[in-house]
Write a structure and sequence with these properties.
Blueprint (H helix, E strand, L loop, with lengths): L1 E9 L2 H17 L4 H18 L6 E10 L2 E10 L8 H16 L2 E5 L5 E7 L8 H13 L5 H87 L8 H32 L7 E3 L1 H12 L8 E6 L7 E3 L1 H17 L4 E10 L4 E8 L33 H11 L3 E7 L3 E9 L16
Parallel strand pairs: 7-9
Antiparallel strand pairs: 1-2, 2-3, 3-5, 4-5, 6-8, 9-10, 10-12, 11-12
Helix pairs in contact: 1-2, 2-3, 5-6, 6-9, 7-8, 8-9
Length: 448
């Protein structure tokens, strides 16, 4: 739906001044902001100047249109005929179209013998202009006097001064923003330099920690091995009989030395992994042979009257590529933890092959005390142990599971856990059936 507001005939340069004034008046009465009034007046006057050049008469029609659920001001400038190609009038009209495209929302040229240029500008968000208000606007335009050319020049000068003041203000804001960005960039550069410096300090500290752990572990292994050997000799009655109290004390010494040896070995393993000084030794591994060896190593830890240790190879007969020593170390740790915290029931060690992903999953499932969901992330942190009723009886180093996770990553796999308090836990090791190449750094036999 379109409603005509005003029509202005264009015969000479005086009419161009007139249509500019009328465009400013119409846009003001329709509620456009001051800047939009200047844009509309400039676009209309430039197009009118190009259309009526070279003595060609034209007219400008101002219309209020309802398009896309929003009212728009439409200005159509039509000429009785087109300017000659390559003439000054044609060049002026082309330049005017470029200006109108920048200042209005859209500008279209309908070519032909009598060209028409249509320009649109959406009204600002407000109450829609009603028919009564439009009639009032038409009456005001009819009764409003039109100033002379000198007054229009003065008005344009005022608009130009306002525009220049606004541009200067924006330029000052831009300069201020530029200075602020420069300060921010300098701060960011300084922050990056500080971060790099701290990262270098952390790297050196990590190297020193690994070196300290490695040296300390090696220094402790010899005396601990001597203590264990001497304790075993005493317990075997190599130097004569012992009283019950002496036997108990020697047994405590032997057990403490064993626990210290486990801690030293775990520390040495972690130090080697962090230092990256070892290499993997992938070779064909048969699940059945792996499980038989594990069963033999774990049998002394099993209370056969209360806990069943079950192995299930999942029917996997084909060998796969991996480091059997590392794999055995991970599973031994899983089984050892399961036996420590399972008083009754079973510990089940199983293997499964996912054909689609070609991944192997080794799972150790127990019916023990379980772990609360809030504590699952803690068990893989170094030197961290979750408090539980069996903790005092089954002490550990707090390094076993973190070491397992590191070993799994070096094998190209991952470690996962599911657990429910009072129900039990399942620790899973997932590995690719084909060992990744180039082989990642690994850990060798710590006893060598």
């Amino acid at each position: 739906m379109s409603q005509r507001i005003l029509t202005v005939a264009l015969e000479s340069d005086k009419d161009v001044v007139l249509v500019r004034q009328r465009a400013r008046q119409v846009s003001s009465l329709l509620g456009f902001a001051k800047q939009d009034q200047v844009r509309i007046a400039t676009a209309v006057s430039e197009v009118a100047r190009g259309a009526c050049h070279d003595g060609i008469s034209a007219r400008a029609v101002f219309v209020l249109s309802d398009l896309h659920d929003r009212q728009q001001l439409e200005v159509a400038v039509s000429a009785v005929r087109a300017a000659a190609p390559h003439s000054e009038g044609a060049a002026l009209l082309d330049a005017a179209l470029v200006t109108a495209h920048r200042l209005m929302e859209d500008c279209a040229l309908e070519g032909g013998a009598a060209p028409v240029i249509r320009m649109h500008k959406s009204l600002p968000p407000q109450q829609p202009v009603s028919a009564a208000r439009l009639a009032q606007i038409t009456t005001e335009l009819a009764t409003t006097p039109i100033g002379n050319s000198f007054e229009e020049v003065q008005q344009q000068n005022r608009e130009l001064v306002e525009t220049l003041a606004e541009l200067r203000e924006r330029q000052e804001d831009l300069l201020s923003l530029t200075r602020e960005l420069e300060d921010t960039n300098r701060g960011i550069v300084a922050l990056y330099a500080e971060i790099e410096d701290k990262a270098e300090h952390l790297r050196r500290a990590d190297e020193m920690k690994s070196r300290f752990l490695s040296n300390t572990s090696h220094e402790l292994r010899t005396p601990l091995s001597s203590i264990r050997a001497l304790s075993k000799l005493l317990l075997d009655r190599m130097d004569g009989e012992l009283t019950p109290e002496q036997e108990h004390q020697v047994w405590l010494i032997e057990r403490t030395a064993t626990e210290m040896s486990e801690l030293v070995n775990d520390l040495l393993d972690l130090a080697k992994i962090e230092a990256g000084r070892v290499e993997a030794q992938p070779a064909p591994v048969v699940v059945e042979n792996l499980f038989r060896a594990l069963k033999g190593m774990m049998r002394p830890l099993v209370d056969a009257e209360r806990v069943d240790l079950v192995f299930d190879n999942g029917g996997i007969e084909e060998a796969f590529d991996s480091d059997e020593g590392m794999l055995s170390q991970i599973l031994r740790n899983f089984v050892s933890n399961a036996l420590k915290f399972t008083e009754d029931g079973s510990v089940r060690v199983s293997a499964a092959h996912d054909v689609e992903t070609d991944l192997l999953t080794f799972a150790v499932t127990d019916t023990g005390i379980g772990i609360d969901a809030d504590h699952l992330h803690l068990i893989f942190e170094e030197f961290t142990q979750v408090e539980n009723p069996l903790q005092s009886r089954s002490k550990g180093t707090g390094l076993g599971l973190p070491l397992c996770r590191r070993l799994a990553e070096l094998l190209g796999g991952r470690v996962d856990v599911n657990s429910r308090p009072g129900v039990g836990s399942t620790f899973m090791l997932t590995l690719p059936r084909q060992f990744p190449h180039p082989a990642p750094a690994s850990i060798r036999d710590t006893e060598s």
